[in-house]
Specification:
Layout: E1 2-7, E2 13-14, H1 23-31, E3 38-43, H2 53-65, E4 70-73, H3 81-88, E5 92-93, E6 100-101, E7 105-106, H4 108-118
Parallel strand pairs: 1-3, 3-4, 4-5
Antiparallel strand pairs: 1-2, 6-7
Helix pairs in contact: 1-2
């Protein structure tokens, strides 16, 4: 899997390697290297709303035209993942900060809610945070 990062606000590729300004062309170049999966990471939007129509349209265009399965990384949370899946139709989704609590620690309740939502279930109302970390 190779990650290709794009700015959510204007769709331009970002990162260490130069890419064409056309996001689909950049995705096709990376896909042509023989990767099995392409992670589309949409970063730096203002405001940082993961389900912005322009960001979802960009991810959908890449998924439809890149020629390899796409994993979507876009700052997803339990309350936004289902809409992103419905809008884009990715092979998979990536989550890190969307299921964390203070101190960059994973919140088991948020992880469970994320998985439930990604599978199409209703996200439970937020409850008290339970820390299952051994003391």
């Amino acid at each position: 899997m190779k990650t290709l990062r794009f700015r959510r606000d204007d769709g331009r590729p970002v990162g260490r390697h130069p890419h064409p300004t056309d996001p689909l062309a950049a995705a096709r170049i990376v896909a042509a290297t023989g990767v099995d999966l392409l992670m589309v990471d949409l970063v730096g939007a203002t405001p940082p709303v993961p389900t912005r129509p322009a960001a979802m349209a960009l991810a959908r265009t890449i998924r439809e035209g890149a020629g390899v399965p796409v994993v979507l990384a876009v700052g997803l949370r339990p309350d936004t993942v289902r809409a992103a899946i419905d809008d884009v139709g990715p092979y998979g989704v990536d989550v890190i900060t969307g299921v964390e609590r203070a101190g960059h620690r994973k919140d088991p309740a948020k992880v469970a809610a994320f998985v439930l939502a990604a599978r199409g279930g209703d996200v439970p109302a937020p409850g008290p945070v339970q820390d299952s970390t051994p003391q």
